[in-house]
Amino acid sequence: MVEIIHKEESYRIMGACFEVYKRMGCGFLEGVYQECLEMEFTEQRIPFVPQSPLDLRYKGQALKQKYVPDFICFDLIIVELKAIKDLTDEHRAQVHNYIKASGYRLGLLANFGQFPQLQWERIVR
């Protein structure tokens, strides 16, 4: 049997994303969905930190460059938002890099730009 990591937490996060999509639909800029999700996470008591910079290292030395995911939820899961026509491998690679930099095992990629429904993916390291 395949283990689904952080099943309950990711289910709650995606429920909040579906709620925002149900109420807002597609067509807004990513920042609008970011703000709506902050409100929804707060209402649903989902612990989150918005746009928290992740440190990057090369050969043990800190880099000046930082990665900034849209959310870190439950101090376990990276959540990256998009508001585009379709997800591409570049977006998936972005989330892979976020989870690698953070040391977390799970990233959720949610695209609010799809019609007629939210496009989403679980990305596991």
**N-to-C span:** 18 Å
**CATH architectural arrangement:** Alpha-Beta Complex
In spatial order, strands of the major sheet run 1-4-5-6-7
The biggest sheet, with number of strands, parallel, antiparallel or mixed sense and barrel status, is: 5 strands, mixed
Give a written overview of the molecule.
The chain contains three helices and seven strands. With 125 residues, it is α+β, with helices and mostly antiparallel strands. A hairpin with a 2-residue loop joins strand 2 and strand 3. The chain has a single domain, classed as Alpha-Beta Complex (Lambda Exonuclease, Chain A), CATH 3.90.320.10. The radius of gyration is 14 Å and the shape is globular.
Write the layout of secondary structure elements.
Elements (H helix, E strand, L loop, with lengths): L6 H18 L5 H14 L4 E3 L3 E5 L2 E7 L3 E3 L3 E6 L6 H14 L3 E6 L7 E6 L1
Parallel strand pairs: 5-6
Antiparallel strand pairs: 1-4, 2-3, 4-5, 6-7
Helix pairs in contact: 1-2
